[in-house]
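Case study B.
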Amino acid sequence: QAVLTQPSSLSASPGASASLTCTLRSGINVGTYRIHWYQQNPGSPPRYLLNYRSDSDNQQGSGVPRRFSGSQDASANAGILLISGLQSEDEADYYCMIWHSSAMVFGGGTRLTVL
Amino acid sequence: QVQLVQSGAEVKEPGASVRVSCKASGYTFTSYDINWVRQAAGQGLEWVGWINPMSGDTDHARKFQGRVTMTTYNSINTAYMELTSLTSEDTALYYCARGTSIDVWGQGTTVTVSS
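Model:
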């Protein structure tokens, strides 16, 4: 079982909100990790969005709109990237990342389609 | 502005080695680790390893054990990653990125391994 699991794709309408999940493997408690989120457009390097550990411990990337926010769902053992007021330019691949056992681990990525 | 600029594309034969450079500007080079991440065409992100420019400490993903060497030349704010015994499975875009949050990324260096 992968350390981090993301749905491969998600679709949402312009102006709506999209909730992208990053589920941690059973036995790894989301509450003990800082989850980092990245956006990648085709042909470009990933762009750092934010990291989230708790409501009082999170950082927004430089220049990242407040439409992008992080949270957790402890019952699902998942980190969440919430994008509100979806715009066509939000269509991209999104990756989550944690440091686990001294190694950087990425989720498989979610392709978000805005249509 | 904070920037990481990588060396140009490389084409190597199987069994050869490749060295990729990453020149930092706009911040104090020794204040942040440099991570190396790769991405095969159409695939997700994979961590290679990190180096601390101040101490020279390094760590890497287990799959690269014995094949990867990371160094820095602090007087010119440049990090290097060398990968040896290349196979076709090493064909990928290699990125350097800053810090534990990897908040700044280089533009990527394409490494193609082909006979």
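The two ends of chain A are 32 Å apart (CA to CA). The remaining cases will be described in the next quarterly update.
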